[in-house]
Amino acid sequence: GAVVSQHPSWVICKSGTSVKIECRSLDFQATTMFWYRQFPKQSLMLMATSNEGSKATYEQGVEKDKFLINHASLTLSTLTVTSAHPEDSSFYICSARSRGGLAVYEQYFGPGTRLTVT
Amino acid sequence: DAKTTQPPSMDCAEGRAANLPCNHSTISGNEYVYWYRQIHSQGPQYIIHGLKNNETNEMASLIITEDRKSSTLILPHATLRDTAVYYCIVRVAILREGAQKLVFGQGTRLTINP
Question: Which residues of A touch B (CB under 8 A)?
Answer without folding.
Answer: 1, 4, 32, 34, 36, 42-46, 49, 91, 93, 95, 97, 102-105, 107-112, 114
